[in-house]
Amino acid sequence: MARADDIPTRLTDRKRAAILEAAVAEFRSAGYEATTMDRIAAAAGVSKRTVYNHFPSKDALFLRILEEMFARGIGGPDLAYRADRPLRAQLMELVEQKLRLLDDPHFVDLARVAIAAGLHSPTLARDMLERLGDREEGITTWVRAAAADGRLKTDDPLFAAMQLQALVKGPAFWPQMSMGQPALDAAQQRQVADGAVDMFLARYG
Description:
By secondary structure, the protein is mainly α. The protein has helices spanning 6-34, 37-44, 48-54, 58-72, 87-102, 105-120, 122-132, 138-148, 157-172, 174-179, 186-204. Keywords: DNA-binding, Transcription, Transcription regulation.
């Protein structure tokens, strides 16, 4: 049987989850500027005061959503670097995971909102960088580990990882984000993954 003092905690957690879910929907549909805490509260079925109890400002709420969005792009433990596996196979798994994320409409919509909000508000853009800048994506972590193990030839793993990201996002993110191009189909994603990994290993392998 649940303890009485567990019930308020669970209720608070449910309200917080409802606020985040409603905020994501509002930011996706209306954009950053048009979204208000009143709209989020109404969509979540809570009072505006409850929203502010969880998040002191719209910026703070938006940044929390971005943190969760960013976390979805970080590879899990099963994608950590392994010294006993071929480099290409590991890189293909990492790149394919990245392509699945970039193909997620939920992720793409929030990324579009984040870019637009950052362009409109340099302060918010700076806050985003400060909050997310100390995180490290799975690809970067993997490249750093492979370089430390002597299997990649680079003195600058961060730059090498950025180049790999660019090889993926060049055809699979920025055209869709900035020019409304359709998402890549499975064959195109495979072509991007093969090309990016082969070019990366030709330079650093």
